[in-house]
Amino acid sequence: MRNNASGFSLIELLVVVAMTGIMATVAGASIAGQVQQQNLGLAQQSIAQSIRNARQLAISKSRSMTIQFFPSPNNKIRIYENDNDDTNDGNNDEVEWNAATLKQEQNLPNNINLQTNGVVPFRTKFNFRGEISNVGQLRTVYLMMDNTNYLDSDAGRTACETARTCKAVVISTVLGKVRTVQ
């Protein structure tokens, strides 16, 4: 009698299951990397827009506005209106700073590591014309998925440009021009 049993052997089924598992693992890692890149890009756009908002508020209200960045683990951005505009030397005197009024606050995602160039406090003040009166307040804000330190220098920006896990936002002129580094 002839056995006409059709189907797959156990070995064939195990090979197919193993191959499916390998492909799912590779696809999952790729999707996770894309999601991280997208989150990093969204955080970068958010910071650039916050800087533009601070500048625009300063112009529209004819008042000084200060944007302050709180590095990780806080990952916050705050925009303050400076009530005392008698001095606009960019030094952010404590008397002037204590009189500031919070206008906007924004939180970045927890999985993003926000770093600054080490200047504390990390804030930039726009005068009523939307200008930065102190060149020392030109800033670079680094956003990354890892804990690598990128200094505020050409070497740091170059390293950030080549790293897939880093993006930067640069206030590049005293007129408050904002550019992003991919």
Brief characterization of the structure:
This protein is α+β, with helices and mostly antiparallel strands and 182 residues long.
Write up this protein:
- 36% of the residues lie in helices and 23% in strands.
- Strands 3-2-1-5 form a four-stranded antiparallel β-sheet, with helices on one face. A four-stranded antiparallel β-sheet has the order 4-6-7-8, with helices on both faces.
- Strand 7 and strand 8 form a beta hairpin.
- The radius of gyration is 25 Å and the shape is elongated.
What key phrases describe this protein's structure?
182 residues, alpha+beta, four-stranded antiparallel beta sheet, 3 helices, 8 strands, elongated
- The number of E-state strands comes to 8
Sheet with most strands: strand arrangement: 3-2-1-5
How would you spell out the order of helices and strands? HEEHEEEEHEE
Q: What would the average pLDDT be, to the nearest integer? A: 78
Helix content: 25-40%
Please specify the SSE layout and strand pairing.
Elements: H1 10-61, E1 65-70, E2 76-81, H2 94-98, E3 101-107, E4 113-115, E5 123-126, E6 140-144, H3 154-162, E7 166-171, E8 178-181
Antiparallel strand pairs: 1-2, 1-5, 2-3, 4-6, 6-7, 7-8
